[in-house]
Amino acid sequence: MLVWSRSGRIVIWILAALLLGVLFLAPLAVIVVASFSQQWSGVLPTGFTIEHYSDVVSGASRDAIWASLATGLVASLVALVAGTWAALALRLQGERWGRLLGLLFFVPSAVPSVSVGLGLLVGFSQKPFLLNGTVAIVLIAHFVLVSAFTFGTVSAGLMRLAPDYEQVASSLGARPFYQLVHVTLPLIAPYLVAAFGLSFALSMGELGATVMLYPPGWVTLPVAIFGQTDRGDIFSGAALTMVLVVTTLALLLGLERLPLKAAASR
């Protein structure tokens, strides 16, 4: 740290704790309390219930959970394959071309998700690419929005990968495909898992493009939460928010526990 005195470090830790509590923990605590509340017209809620959570496992809320999980898994898996393929392909290009072409993957992350949704809505509303009103256009939107982060994470892993292992495998007669499957990909496996986890988390929380594109019957959790809170049903929206948080954290914690070793540094 840049503060060397004991009193200065104590002050910094207190300020950091206050900042963390006000900006992160306090809003989450309010959502947790609201999800169990019957009414909240004063400083504190009056009456507690689990009815909001019992409604989650049935009807439209249950469908929203499955829609979000399916969208997140499909979009993240496709983004992982495409991002990994692109990172491996650009690795073979020269530094100038690799950097220039790599920037194309980050274009969607440089514009608001609403702009991505609008572009897809206009681009796929006419034949022969009429996808407006289908689940496919939602999957495409999520893929476009998360692919940049997948590509960036895998590229970072490849940059840290020492070339010695691949050179040794090549000198022993390993074919390119065998080398890729048995040497390169296992060495960057932690980065692949991290890329999938990041993409899934981003997809689960995506709202801007989805609210412009989702068809009837395919309402994701963020859209359902937005709709409930917009109608004034704050408590049900809070319960759905907690389901979204717990589901995403559960997957990320499960991925973190996978016994994988990081790539060897250059």
Question: Could you please describe the fold and organization of this structure?
Answer:
By secondary structure, the chain is mainly alpha-helical. It has two domains: 43 residues, no CATH class; 201 residues, MetI-like fold (Orthogonal Bundle). It contains twelve helices and two strands. A two-stranded antiparallel ribbon has the order 1-2. A hairpin with a 6-residue loop joins strand 1 and strand 2. Helix 5 crosses helix 6 and helix 11 runs antiparallel to helix 12. The two termini are 28 Å apart.
Task: Write a concise keyword list for the protein shown above.
globular; mainly alpha; two-stranded antiparallel ribbon
Mean pLDDT over the residues: 83
Largest sheet: number of strands, sense, barrel closure: 2 strands, antiparallel
Tally of structural domains:
2
Which sequence of SSEs, written as H and E, runs from N to C?
Answer: HEEHHHHHHHHHHH
Overall outline: globular
For the CA atoms, what is the radius of gyration? 23 Å
The poorly predicted ranges are none
Tell how many strands the DSSP assignment holds: 2
Distance between the amino and carboxyl termini: 28 Å
CATH homology-level superfamily of the largest domain:
MetI-like
Overall CATH class of the largest domain: Mainly Alpha
